[in-house]
Automatic annotation (TrEMBL):
<dbReference type="GO" id="GO:0016020">
    <property type="term" value="C:membrane"/>
</dbReference>
<feature type="transmembrane region" description="Helical">
    <location>
        <begin position="77"/>
        <end position="96"/>
    </location>
</feature>
<feature type="transmembrane region" description="Helical">
    <location>
        <begin position="54"/>
        <end position="72"/>
    </location>
</feature>
<keyword id="KW-0472">Membrane</keyword>
<feature type="transmembrane region" description="Helical">
    <location>
        <begin position="21"/>
        <end position="42"/>
    </location>
</feature>
<keyword id="KW-1133">Transmembrane helix</keyword>
<dbReference type="InterPro" id="IPR009305">
    <property type="entry name" value="Mpo1-like"/>
</dbReference>
<protein>
    <submittedName>
        <fullName>DUF962 domain-containing protein</fullName>
    </submittedName>
</protein>
<dbReference type="GO" id="GO:0046521">
    <property type="term" value="P:sphingoid catabolic process"/>
</dbReference>
<feature type="transmembrane region" description="Helical">
    <location>
        <begin position="102"/>
        <end position="121"/>
    </location>
</feature>
<keyword id="KW-0812">Transmembrane</keyword>
<dbReference type="Pfam" id="PF06127">
    <property type="entry name" value="Mpo1-like"/>
</dbReference>
<feature type="transmembrane region" description="Helical">
    <location>
        <begin position="133"/>
        <end position="151"/>
    </location>
</feature>
């Protein structure tokens, strides 16, 4: 598994423009919420002998898996992500009970991606996930890191990832020019 510094520097390398970062503070939460809503629509039933069926949904299981991954990457950032994800899981589960929940999820998902691509227009760089699908999980992690940085927290992490990100960006631009 790549380190938090490696993951964040890769993501930041195509998120250096402040306008792009601001669009991500809107687009990523919309996408996350819509995905949780969709995952809330998929129940999983566990039958236990002589007991009633226990029902979970994919969103709950996904939440546990993703939070474990984030805690393995960087525990302090994972605490912030946990505080973000719990209300997302709860509100999306409430909306999942509505009759048109799937259409709400699709609409919010599309709006989130439109906002993301507007941000990348400012950045003049393709989204990070184009080259590495794992970067889809790093988007929320990156935003939480940015929140911590804005609050004056995790200064060493910022100092570690920023030069790496700029280096990676220069390499991307040099490769693009030589192609």
């Amino acid at each position: 598994m790549k380190s938090a510094e490696e993951q964040l520097s890769t993501y930041k390398s195509v998120h250096l423009n402040p306008k792009n970062i601001r669009t991500h503070f809107v687009g990523i939460p919309l996408i996350i919420w819509s995905l949780f809503l969709l995952l809330n629509l998929i129940p999983i039933n566990f039958a236990v002998a002589n007991d009633p069926v226990i029902t979970f949904n994919i969103a709950t299981i996904f939440t546990l898996g993703v939070l474990i991954y984030y805690f393995l990457l960087h525990a302090r950032l994972a605490v912030g992500l946990t505080l973000f994800i719990i209300p997302v899981l709860y509100t999306s589960s409430l909306v999942a009970q509505m009759p048109n929940a799937i259409w709400i999820a699709v609409a919010v998902f599309l709006i989130g991606w439109v906002i993301q691509f507007i941000g990348h227009h400012y950045e003049k760089a393709k989204p990070a996930f184009v080259d590495d699908l794992n970067q889809l999980l790093i988007g929320p992690f990156f935003l939480m890191a940015e929140v911590y940085f804005m609050l004056g927290l995790e200064k060493q992490l910022l100092a570690d990832i920023t030069p790496l990100a700029r280096e990676k960006r220069r390499a991307l631009e040099a490769a693009k020019k030589s192609a």
